[in-house]
Amino acid sequence: MAELMGFLLHKYRTKQPTSKEEMLNAVLRDDQDHFPVVLSQASECLQLVFGVDVKEVDPREHLYVLVPTLGLTYDGMQDDGQSMPNTGLLVILLGVIVLEGDFAPEEAVWRALSKMGLCAGREHFIYGEPRELITNVWVQEGYVEYRQVANSDPARYEFLWGPRAYTETSKLQVLEHFLRVNRRGPSSFPSLSEERVSDEEEGA
């Protein structure tokens, strides 16, 4: 599964479609009978962790494209060929905001993100430095609003959905995704590690 994920991430980065035949030749040459199961597992992991959907666009030819999940148009990819899509984390943040009644206190957000191993000021191998991402980048992109709670002293801050989030997706879609992540959890993907995914991408 990790090998196929690395291969598909490479395809996503290079904005190339792929096919069943190509995946079999590149990754599953000796294990073709298990292709449907492995593709399903890899696709679910890509969606939950990276926020990338694997979509079959031609069932007859078995052609697939990779796109950001839930209709979102931003993935945080840089042109350096090294960055990872971070749409999965954006969906988690939007889900936390919904669960907190559309106004998520900053401390509640960090409490949720800490369960994923994300801490302010500490670089994460997939998402980078999360504070910059959630309080600056996604604010500038219009996905979230980050504002001081009225009349708070000392100052406290909260997150809300931004206008771009309302335009591109819905609270129901985000909650369904959020519940899938919580149901599976990181322990469901024991073969996913920084070294493993990086190695498979380099070999793609």
UniProtKB/TrEMBL annotation:
It comes from the Eukaryota. Signal peptide: none annotated. Gene3D superfamilies: MAGE homology domain, winged helix WH1 motif, MAGE homology domain, winged helix WH2 motif. Residues 1-196 form the MAGE domain. InterPro entries: MAGE, MAGE_WH1, MAGE_WH2, MHD_dom. Coiled coil: none annotated. This is Melanoma-associated antigen 8-like.
